[in-house]
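Appendix B. Chain record.
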Amino acid sequence: MSRVAIVRCEDYDRARVGEAAARLLELLGGAARFARPGERLLLKPNLLKAAPPASAVATHPEVLRAVIGTLRAGAPDVKLRVGDSPAWGSFASAAEAAGLAQVCRETGAALSPFAKGVKTPNPGGQVYDHLVIAREALDRDGLINLPKLKTHGQLYMTGAVKNLFGCVAGKRKAWWHFKAGNYQDYFPLMLVETARLLGARLHILDAVLAMEGNGPASGRPRPAGLLLASEDPVALDRVAAEAAGLDPSRVRTLEAARALGWGETELSRIEIAGLPLAQARLERPLAEPKMMAIGFSLPRVVKSTLKQQWLLRVEEPLRRHA
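Structure tokens predicted for this chain:
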């Protein structure tokens, strides 16, 4: 059975988050299972755009700090990098705004923006024989995924599986949306096969402060008071949907995983460690998003690409020199 660990963590107090992260890994067999001496590990937070921690747009900096500390407790000489490819703006700007860059400076973890995509064979792929993945996301010994619990206007909910889409570099993300225009399952199937190909060894979901409503960027922050972890990202998302009071049949990545036969989508076949699921469920479900089509039209792709270039070449440099 897939195992999902759940711990209560009511706020982002540094000591409290550190204890909760250490407890999560204990429930999954200990930090030494996920970080071995001398390894090069990549930590992949949710870093959608430049936004402050209180907005619940990105993985909270104290969660990143706690995971770094817990991994180093198991393997003191482990080499850690923190990387992503934001949908909007530069990695440097987003990491600074989210507080992740400051954590990296204080802990000595390296910042690693994802830039160049590499055509990567997808052995055993049922839909795609190859995927294009950021070179920086492939150059590591192990991958630790640090998603954020948020509602999502195209996928209903985003968690562990969707967060690994950040390993697709740059505006190629918009082209994947364009390809999905005439076949709505194309996109979630790609997300699941991307997650399977990347093979992250651990997924830790920040649900201390979640997002509800029109996520993943414009929803409302909502205290949920939880941290969850698993080696199975599909099982983690299934349990997170249950705790959040969301309809699992509407989570597009769960349905795609079920179709591909990868990961555990049946709650009855998932072992819960730590806080019982009955105690983890929110008293009031997260408010659902207003759903929209996954596919982008060609004009929208062009507009999105031009906006991104404006942010990178004009707006962010002006802001830095203001």
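Further analysis of this model is presented in Appendix C.
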